Amino acid sequence: MSNFEYAPAPESAALVNIKNQYGLFINGKFVAPKAGKTFTTINPATEEVLAKIGYAELADVNLAVAAARNAFEKTWAKMPAVERGKYLYRIARILQERSREFAVLETLDNGKPIRETRDTDIPLAAAHFFYHAGWADKLSYAGVGSNPKPYGVAAQIIPWNFPMLMLAWKIAPALATGNTVVLKPAETTPLTALLFAEVCQQAGLPAGVVNIITGDGVTGSHLVNHPGVDKVAFTGSTGVGKAIAKAIAGTKKSATLELGGKGANIVFDDAPIDETVEGIVNGIFFNQGHVCCAGSRLLLQENIQDEVLEKLKNRMNLIRVGNPMDKNTDLGAINSAAQLARIKEIADSGDIEGSQRWSASCSIPTSGFWYPPTIFTGVSQSHRIAREEIFGPVLSVLTFRTPQEAIEKANNTPFGLSAGIWSDKGSRILWAAKQLRAGVIWSNTFNKFDPASPFGGYKESGWGREGGRHGLAGYLKGEK
Ligand code: NAD
Q1: How many alpha carbons lie under 13 Å from residue 117 in its C-beta half-sphere?
Q2: Bridge partners, 26 (sequence order)
Q3: Counting CB atoms within 10 angstroms of each CB, which of 38, 159, 373, 460 has the fewest?
Q4: Is 292 a pocket residue for ligand 1 (Cβ < 6 Å)?
């Protein structure tokens, strides 16, 4: 037998019941948007329309903020902390019980492989609720004073790359600390947030504690600029993060901003090469490279570059690209036509500026949005593909000769979200980690997440941390 092929192993789309149309979730109920406007969300792997979604305008934002304010003052902030914690536990357990449904819905709406939604996104989202449930009655130990207080109404805006996980990163700490929420998911991936609204109903969460409004950047900016909002928590692009920082400057609003990145994955010549190749692949091709902390700049020590690149290309040829609902798929669809166009435009600049492109030999479906796993070699620091976030399955490879040169190149970026270090020597790892200007640094692994571990950036990658004890500080007023 010379040609070994996987048999298809599709997950069933019948596990979810997608409605034709969704309203906004305000004050514990689904309501139609005041002006009756809607938009559609599609499956990026097939371009089929999944559902019509309500479009929230200013009048709807006003209602959602008023509901959150009312719930904050009358119910949530007054409730004994231990009772608040019970609601978070209940939500976490429901997410576990309904995890298969959430995983399928996320894959259909986002295009990411079912293997990732099933094994990463949804279990981690539930873990965030469990973790924060435990904090609810222990906030005086969070390091923000003996009697910390919630801000009030939190406006939370999230991107499309990890819709349910980003929702959990936002809502779990906000509720644990006694804040109420108006959350806006990204316009291309609203469905799991709307299913989460049903979970809030199922958990008996008091009306108005969580409100979910759908729409685009205009809806988001109405929410950020609303005078009834006390705290803004945003995850998304650095450009929009800067616009939000300007919009709230001079107001009483507090903000956490989780923005873009251009993570350096540094491989020293004493690294275990086979494990490192797995780490490089996970660092850039996980979630189609739609990962803010992706290891999108590979820094290879020059004397091992040929060996690593040969093994990397062999490994990339084994990446299975295609139907995200197939349990064997490694790389799914690009989330939208707009994102595919952005990836193509920046990657093409790599050809124009003189780097060498190599793509894995994979077949790509004829409908939907796809991009093959790609690397560029011969990249220099001045190339756009070394400086700008591509947010797709495209790796820029640079080289270095000395450890000091590796650090200088790694830090030569306006971002500072993540970095990876591959080496056999603990002393070298600690030496490098101390000098890297990045919020999260992995050694001999990449893209590992845990609710107890704070996540966030330096420089243009953002302000504040999410997760862990440090993440709670963003939702509490106290003696800091
Ligand atoms: P985006 O900034 O275009 O959109 C993010 C969200 O902001 C969406 O919900 C959008 O509707 C909303 N929005 C757009 N304009 C707005 C405005 N003027 N005011 C308020 N809200 C507005 O980003 P994206 O393309 O959806 O996501 C990709 C970006 O997110 C990447 O740059 C990525 O690095 C970043 N990201 C960062 C983290 C992190 O933790 N640091 C995590 C995930 C993604």
Answers
A1: 31
A2: 29
A3: 38
A4: yes
Cβ proximity of 204 and 168 under 8 Å: no
Q: Alpha-carbon distance 187 to 196, whole Å?
A: 16
Q: How far is the CA of 257 from the centre of ligand 1 (A)?
A: 10
DSSP bridge pairs for 378: none
Task: Give the CATH H-level superfamily of domain 264-443.
Answer: Aldehyde Dehydrogenase; Chain A, domain 2 (3.40.309.10)
Indicate where the chain has its CATH 3.40.605.10 domain(s): 13-259+459-477
Q: Quote the CA–CA distance of 50 and 463 in Å, as a whole number.
A: 35
What topology does CATH give the domain 13-259+459-477?
Answer: Aldehyde Dehydrogenase; Chain A, domain 1 (3.40.605)
**Best probe residue, ligand 1, of 235, 291, 417, 447 (max atoms within 8 Å of C-beta):** 235
Q: In 3-state terms, what secondary structure has residue 463?
A: strand
Q: Is 39 in the pocket of ligand 1 (CB under 6 A)?
A: no
Choosing from 106, 116, 187, 292, the catalytic residue is: 292
Q: What tokens appear for 244 in the block?
A: 């939000």
Whether the Cβ atoms of residue 325 and residue 368 lie closer than 8 Å to each other: no
H/E stretch holding 179 reads none
CA-based nearest residue to 162, from 106, 114, 213: 106
* Ranges in the chain annotated CATH 3.40.309.10: 264-443
Reduced to 3 states, what is the DSSP secondary structure of residue 150? strand
Whether 353 lines ligand 1, by a CB cut-off of 6 Å, is: no
Q: Is 391 in the pocket of ligand 1 (CB under 6 A)?
A: yes
Q: Are 180 and 170 in contact (CB under 8 A)?
A: no
Length of the chain: 480
Q: Between vectors from CA 182 to CA 177 and to CA 184, what angle results, nearest 5°? A: 125
Burial class (CB in 10 A: 0-12, 13-18, 19+), 274: exposed
Nearest to 39 by CA among 26, 28, 23: 23
CA distance 223 to 184: 9
